[in-house]
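Incident review: delayed structure delivery

Summary: a single-chain prediction request sat in the queue longer than the usual turnaround. Root cause was a stuck worker, restarted by the on-call engineer. No data loss occurred. The affected request and its eventual output are reproduced below so the record is complete for anyone auditing the incident later.

Affected input:
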Amino acid sequence: MKRLLLVVGTRPNYIKITQFKKVAEEKFKNQFDIKIVHTGQHFDKAMADDFFKQLDIFPDFALNIPQSTANNQIGEIIIRLEETVNDFRPDLIIVPGDVNSTLAAAITANKMNVPLAHLESGLRSFDRSMPEEINRLLVDEITDHFFVTEQSGVDNLIKEGKPAEQIHFVGNTMIDTLVAFEDSIKSQSVLAEYQLKKDEFILMTIHRPATADNKEGLIHLLGLLEKLIKKHQVVFPMHPRTLNNISKFGLKAEFDDLKNLTITGPLDYFSFQNLIHNCKMVLTDSGGIQEETTFKLKPCLTLRPNTERPSTITEGSNTLLDFDIDKILEHIETIESGTYKNSRVPKFWDGNATERILEVINSVINK
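Output delivered after worker restart:
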């Protein structure tokens, strides 16, 4: 039995690995022993248990890394993960995404001579001011098995000189989770809770530091919201950090005065996906939400200057607009009029990516 160690630190990356144990048990009986390491990078302990219970996924090891600087976090993960690797002795370490825990686990695998698999390999924004972009580049430099979600990932890795035989276009494991929990998502009562009607509200999420962590960015966000709420109901699940910054920069009264705006705290996974399913459109700066809306063929306006997920634009329902308020309002009118672009779900975004990954791993490890 081959031992696989999945190392995960953030909620979005947990959503990418929910089906590994289930698929291994159903399709690869007695071939894999899969363990999950929870680094705790972005988790509120009070929310963690509910999150794991909802997705029916529970870590086998917890590193309990405290909130700190990026350097301290990465160093602590490397130190504590080494002990777990020595105890479990995995045949392969698997890391999803592009966060600090991804990089730390990749370095640990490399230094301990354990083969490394990277989920979402090859995604590139070509913006080196983004910490996530640096993490992606560094991790792929020491990856042994590249698991790719879209064609751009294959193209980027080939251009960077990665061996073609180690690149595997398997699809998107985050979509596997959406498919697996579709019934649970649709059964949520979040519309009634916030007195919302299907297709009659805009869902908005903004969390990147360029907007959420400085006064100028929040004033710009306020200006957009002031225009949106004249014609639209807006639902805005807001990160606690953003809420704190609004108060810190003396903008709380202005945000409180916005009518037709519903600000919530962070929502559980099922409730948030239910809102995506039922909204008219999404405005976001999130990477993962670009993919989730594309899978649901839901119009998405991404308020960033770039994206590492270009298939959501070339094939999917996403449009990249930066934070140009006039362009945002123009595209909202296009969506409202029913003349927004046609879109389709990208190749292999079908709920079976995890199975394809395990098939490759089974073949590679058993050579």
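Verification: The first helix runs from residue 11 to 14.
Action items: add queue-age alerting; document worker restart procedure.
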